[in-house]
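Input structure tokens:
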């Protein structure tokens, strides 16, 4: 499966127009596969903040009371991918307080993966706030990862501005 990154000039956040869900692949399968792919990239250290943010987004948009449930096999694959991604996600956050909140976010993502597989009776056994809290912690992690991306983009532009300034100074000095 191909992963698209935000480094592409024309990337709009959506798969390219020529990408079609396979004949045997449902939207649910696609969502599960994309979430697993994003988490795999995180585990390998590939653009961790961006891929973690998008993994959290795919998870949040994939689940709802009316959404189709994932199978136990899909649940287990996603949990394994999340476990492998966890160290890279936590490494984004150097301070103990940030790391603790990130850890809660990863735990919440695991809880949401379980929720995605549960039937209505299993879901109803918990207080409704548990689900809302898991969504909030996962959203907070997603936002924190996105903030890392934004800061990296700001730093990259600053480096570019400095390079342009130095090149301009050298051009003027040579003239």
């Amino acid at each position: 499966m191909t992963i698209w990154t935000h480094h592409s000039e024309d990337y709009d956040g959506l798969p390219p127009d020529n990408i079609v869900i396979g004949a045997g692949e449902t939207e649910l399968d696609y969502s599960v596969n994309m979430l697993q792919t994003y988490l795999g990239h995180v585990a390998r250290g590939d653009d961790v903040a961006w891929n973690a943010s998008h993994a959290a987004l795919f998870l949040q948009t994939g689940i709802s009371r009316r959404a189709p449930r994932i199978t136990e096999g899909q649940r287990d694959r996603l949990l394994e991918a999340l476990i492998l991604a966890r160290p890279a996600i936590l490494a984004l956050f150097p301070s103990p307080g940030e790391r603790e909140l990130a850890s809660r976010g990863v735990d919440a993502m695991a809880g949401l993966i379980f929720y995605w597989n549960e039937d209505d009776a299993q879901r109803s056994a918990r207080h409704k706030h548990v689900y809302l809290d898991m969504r909030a912690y996962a959203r907070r992690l997603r936002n924190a990862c996105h903030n890392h991306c934004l800061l990296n983009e700001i730093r990259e532009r600053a480096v570019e501005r400095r390079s342009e300034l130095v090149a301009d100074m050298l051009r003027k000095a040579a003239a």
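DSSP finds six helices and no strands in the chain. The mean pLDDT is 89.
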